[in-house]
Amino acid sequence: MRYFLQKLGQFSIVFFIVTFAVMILMRLGLNAPGDPARTLLGGTVDQELIDATTAKYRLDQNYFVQYFFWLKNIVVDQDMGRSVPLSTDVVDLIKSRAMTTILLGTYAIVWGLIIAVPLAVRQAHKRDSWFDKFGSAGSFAFVSAPAVVLAPIFTLLLIKENTITLWWPFNDYQITFGGWFPRIGEKIYPWQDLGAHFRNFFVPTLVLTLPIAAVFARLLRGDMVMTLQADFVTLASAKGVSPRRVLWVHALRNSLFSLLTSVGLQVSGIVGGAIVVEQFFDLDGMGTMLVSAILSKDLFIVQSTAAVLVFSVVIVNLIVDLLYGVLDPRIRHARALA
Amino acid sequence: MSTQIQASARDIDGPLLELEDVTTHFKTPRGVVRAVDGVSFSLDRGKALGIVGESGSGKTILSRSIMGLLPPRGTIRGGSIKFEGREIGNLDRKAMRSVWGKEMAMIFQDPMTSLNPVMKIGRQIAEPLQIHLGMTKQNALATAERLLQDVRIPEAKRRLEQYPHEMSGGMRQRVMIAIALACGPTALFADEPTTALDVTVQAQILDLLGEQRRDRNMSLVLVTHDLGVVAGHTDEIAVMYGGKLVEKASTKGLFANMKMPYTEALLNSIPKLEDRSHTRLNAIAGRPPDLVNPPKGCRFAPRCPYAVDKCVNEEPPLIATAEDPNHLYACWYPVGSEGYHEAKVRIAASKHATDALAATSAAGGN
Amino acid sequence: MTTTLAPTTAPSAPAAAPDAPTKGRRLPKWPGLGIVFAITFLGGLTFLAIFADYLSFIPYPNEKILGPNGRPGRYDWGPSWTAWFGTDGVSADVFSKCIYGARTSLQVGIFATVFGILVGGGLGMIAGYFRGWVDRVVMIFTDCLLALPALLLAIILVDRLRAQAESGGVLGWIEERWGIAFIVLTLGTLAVAPLARIVRAQTLTLREREFVLAARSLGAKPNRVIFREILPNLIPAILTVAFTGLSVLIAAEGALAFLGLGAEIGTPTWGKLIDENRNKIDEFWWATIFPCLMLFLTVLSFNIIGDRLSRRFDIRQAGV
Fold first, then answer.
1. Does residue C281 contact residue A152 with C-beta atoms inside 8 Å?
2. Is residue A49 part of a domain?
3. Is the pLDDT at B221 greater than 60, yes or no?
4. Contacts of residue B80, Cβ cutoff 8 Å, sequence gap at least 6
5. pLDDT tens track for A101-147
6. Shortest Cα distance from C223 to chain A (angstroms)?
């Protein structure tokens, strides 16, 4: 418990520093009085409105005061500020956009694990076999394929309808493939229409998932190979335990630590990937919203969305930290003593 | 002792374990490593055999070969291994699974790394019981508790819920023994069971193993580098060198009348209690042979102080001594033979000569 | 029997030496091929990128390639002898743009990595060597850098730096001199945290090693210990992370350019090519896919080298 509180404290410090830093970054160069409000409102507006906005968000005060009131508004009134150009409250904006990004991210991590774990376990089990070699080469390739690269390639292969004409000796036989998925993703949620949701989200998810699955698979395979050489694995075999149980019960749980660490780290990577994927497939989620907000200096959108993202990253890492203890009694005990 | 599960008392005549010309070779980038090279012996039911040798002598590989625990890839196995009259040398891992833990069990060297760190002790002991004897979880855990009592672990019930890291090395080795004993195996292989333990704990563990062996009428194969360990705890001793069996006899017979200079050297290498402190240790000079290109003649010849040309060129056969048909050795000039004495005299003479030379030169220098 | 259970450390048989078969570290065969490919590809690409101006078979990226009808050929050419990678929407040669794009990507990647090594490596070394509160501050700093999604941080930084530069001043002067300065600075910042972490971890172990202890006990000053004893031993780790980091940074540069935050207008980059031509991918796939492949192969090559180094020096990067 004490360990948990300590970690919580550490992560809150990080949260506050980062959100504060984002605020300062966004306000760089807006030094003249009234500047932040003018940027916030955009276009030419009368002085009265500027003064009102300045007063409302205390934009004339120093950064600490501004930060405090921004945070207070979020916590107390669930008010994340307002985007004047989009004439919407930021809370509503995030609400309407977040689900896309959350779905994409969750799919990527869950599918990444579903693909990576069996692959890596089998690779480690059949170490140096052809299966292992192909698996390693494949995961290595996808580790090196960022979303910017995969998105066009899958567009070409799966979204575009391709016809390839084979020449001799196939007598101009034509193969047609692709065209299975819509070009532009529509935000259709699974509870609305599962089939349509699948068609719209499949390619973006694939683009996000494959590199993550590859990272997971590489880490898990490496750890698993090490674990399989441990004495206790041989002992488990010598007890007459079936190979399947040796792999999945004895070896896997002892090999999950790098994977777990990586899940925590990948969360922020996924946000980056999601920004690109949303942009590419015109799925308007938090990523696209953020990019346009940064470029148009929509201060509160950036500040609040960044806060939400940092908060999720911090929470996931906190969970990962707790899971270490769940997985390994030694860590649990060490923490209980600390 | 009290455990109900007894060794399966199938009364078949003949030895429990019969090895005939067993070879285990490994394919490596450097070439074929002949880790075990033509070993034959047999072991009777309920007896304890010590396999002794330096590291690299093939003793661990031999014990793992018998159990079939070596990784299948790159391993070439040959010869015949009969267990309770049944050929098991050619069985694959799948077929061996019903034997592992149930009829043969193994204790590893390092109790620190041999238990699963994230699994409770109770479950680790219960696992073979559930697999081989089809026990329910409750029954298996109850049996596990009794097994822990058998291996003298206090507060057995509480220990079931503990993880390996909460126990000392000696305790963990006791847990390992409990796991090995769980299904009442007829043969127990203990691979350096005491090497990683404190000296004070070593004797306790060895005594425990001996006691359990007698109670359960189980055969024990004790693999060790330490003749001192096997002396008090085995009926027979097999000495291995360079992948070959070089001497085998009853424990008494071996210590009374050892034939191989290697055995003698092994014994001499153990520091004796009555030695004055700071006595030089009698290490065996040189290194164990390269098993990719083993020496042509006797494999010990390059390090043997008594070796002559014949030893280097011709491989000695494994033969019985005149007095005891069960005492086998492989040496051209065994300890006590004429050639051995001649060699000894020769060595003494040359030593004398060097000493004298050193003395004169020292005198001349002054 | 005089020896029963005397101390069992028979010197001839070292204790705890299991003679089980220890398999040699066998590297699978393909990295051998991979490393050859990686070095050839990167070498060739670097050569072309440096000497592009002088090589006759590489047109200028803004040169219009004429179509079959003699007029500027917007997308007229697919991959062909005239234009190896085809032409894009402004009739320019895609191959040439890819090579000039490599210029940007490689420069950005390398300079950003150097920045990351200097700042991150320095911070990590100081944190690992002095420990205590210095360490705590550095760790919180890297935690903060890692908490904000990297691409998001990059977008904010590039955009803010650009905005600041518009009003002139030092930043404006820098941007005028060196168009990719801000991207280098931004991506360099991203590289700081991972490098600081691994260097810190390595320094922590190194400072307890005998030779460092010896130097310290002989009264060597921290300066001397850091630069003479610790730094040389950090090089393998830094090199390994640098190559892997290079691949990540080049990918990030691609993403930034794709989002419209790359190098200034007129400088071809892979990300920009992908972004400009992605809506025409149905008919004119070459203008998108070739830059994609270039980006992929470059990232792959740096990864292969990084992977090779990490095996060679046995450095695990799970935590980075």
1. yes
2. no
3. yes
4. B18, B19, B20, B21, B22, B87, B89
5. 888 999 999 999 999 999 999 999 988 889 999 999 999 899 988 88
6. 31
Residue B232 maps to a domain: yes
Q: What is the tally of structural domains in chain A? A: 1
Task: Let me know: does B112 contact B196? Beta carbons within 8 Å.
Answer: yes
**Domain enclosing residue A107, as ranges:** 90-337
Which ipTM value was assigned to this complex? 0.86
Q: How many CA atoms lie within 13 A of C220 on its CB side?
A: 17
Please check whether residue B61 lies inside any domain of the structure: yes
Burial class (CB in 10 A: 0-12, 13-18, 19+), B276: exposed
Span B8-31, pLDDT tens digits: 444 456 788 889 889 999 988 888
- State the CATH number of the domain containing residue B237: 3.40.50.300
Mean pLDDT of the residues in chain B: 84
| Domain enclosing residue B352, as ranges | 336-366
Confidence of residue C70 (pLDDT cuts 50, 70, 90): low
- Residue B129 is assigned to a structural domain of this protein: no
CA distance A148 to chain C (A): 6
The amino acid that residue C220 corresponds to is A
**How do beta strands B48-52 and B236-241 pair?**
parallel
In what helix (H) or strand (E) does residue B20 lie, and over which residues does it extend?
A: strand B17-28
Hey, are the CB atoms on C16 and B196 less than 8 Å from each other?
A: yes
Q: Residue C229 carries which DSSP code?
A: I
Number of domains into which chain B is organized: 2
Q: Choosing among A16, A19, A148, A153, which should be mutated to test the C contact, i.e. which has the most C CBs within 10 A?
A: A148
Whether B174 is covered by a domain: the verdict is no
CATH of C87-313, one of 3.90.1150.10, 1.10.3720.10, 3.40.462.10, 2.40.50.180: 1.10.3720.10
Element counts in chain C: helices (H) and strands (E)? 12, 0
Are C140 and A13 inside 8 Å of each other by CB?
yes
A309 and C149: CB-CB below 8 Å?
A: yes
Contacts of C17 in chain B (CB under 8 A): 55
Q: Which of residues 264-283 of A touch C (CB under 8 A)?
A: 265, 268-269, 271-273, 275-276, 279-280
**Residues B312-331, mean pLDDT to the nearest whole number:** 86
CB contact under 8 A, C303 and A144: yes
Distances (CA, A) of C267 to C48, C89, C94, C110, C263: 16, 16, 13, 18, 6
Q: Are C285 and A160 inside 8 Å of each other by CB?
A: yes
Same domain, B225 and B239: yes
What integer pLDDT is reported at residue C9 of this predicted model? 29
Residues 6 or more apart whose CB falls under 8 angstroms from that of C241 comprise: C194, C195, C198, C306, C315, C317, C320
Chains touching chain A through at least 3 C-beta pairs below 8 angstroms are B, C
Residue B347, both tokens: 């060595």
B95 and B222 share a domain? yes
What pLDDT was estimated at residue C214? 86
Q: Is residue A30 part of a domain?
A: no
Domain ranges, ordered by start, for chain C: 87-313
Identify the chains in contact with B, defined as 3+ C-beta pairs within 8 A: A, C
Instruction: Give pTM, 2 decimals.
Output: 0.85
Q: Are residues B225 and B319 in the same domain?
A: yes
Tell whether A67 is covered by a domain: no
| C71-128 per-position pLDDT tens digit | 666 766 667 766 677 777 776 777 888 888 888 889 889 999 999 999 999 999 999 8
Beta carbons of C1 and B255 less than 8 Å apart:
yes
The whole-angstrom distance between A331's CA and the closest CA on chain B is 10
Please count the residues of chain C: 320
Cis peptide before A169 (omega within 30 of 0): yes
Does any domain span residue A55?
no
Q: Does the beta-carbon distance from B127 to A241 stay under 8 Å? A: yes
Interface touch B163/A236, C-beta < 8 Å: no
As a whole number of angstroms, the distance between CA B316 and CA B322 comes to: 16
